[in-house]
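User: structure tokens for ABC transporter permease, please.
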Amino acid sequence: MVETIEQLIYYYSQNGGYVLEQFFRHFLMSAYGVLFAALFAIPLGIIIARYRKLSGWVFSLANVIQTIPALAMLAVLMLVMGLGANTVVVSLFLYSILPILRNTYTGIINVDKTLIESGNGMGMTRNQLLRMVELPLALSVILAGIRTAMVIAIGITTIGTFIGAGGLGDIIVRGTNAASGAAIILAGAIPTALMAITADILLGALEKLLSPSRKKAGGEMEQAA
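Assistant: Done. Predicted tokens:
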């Protein structure tokens, strides 16, 4: 174990720049996949919350996509798009749809109906209700879906190395073919785990910050003061 740690420290000292480069490449692929999924899934979640008869069909399709093994997904997309990071980003986009879509739908339909009725009584349009009432109250739930998608994406991006996308998976795979394999595998696995944990903590903190209950508690404290 001590020898492995020494080899790990030596690897970082000799290849720190390369590890950092692959770290950012890994993060950007994950972030882009989740970002594009959010841009697609949040509006779609709002639509199926409005027209709930569509929700069964949409969720069924999203569930089917989620059940496809990651390697199989990459293999199919590779036939269409070729090798490289773009194929991984599209794969992450597809895998990130379900958690964001589900949480957007859940967040919108669970908004307190009395608040909707109050907005209607004030003469708000549907778009105004969405922008000023529903989305602010559902934001923390939507963010929880993005948080889940991001953690999943960071893990899936690791296997992007098999189609030439780079990322920290490159280091892990190199470790499987090296004499000091355990140290090199750890050199890729540790930053991957730290990235996932950091993303989960930061997005979790933002989720709590945007929680309606927290905002309500903050408003009550201000009134009491």
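User: Anything notable?

Assistant: The mean pLDDT is 88.
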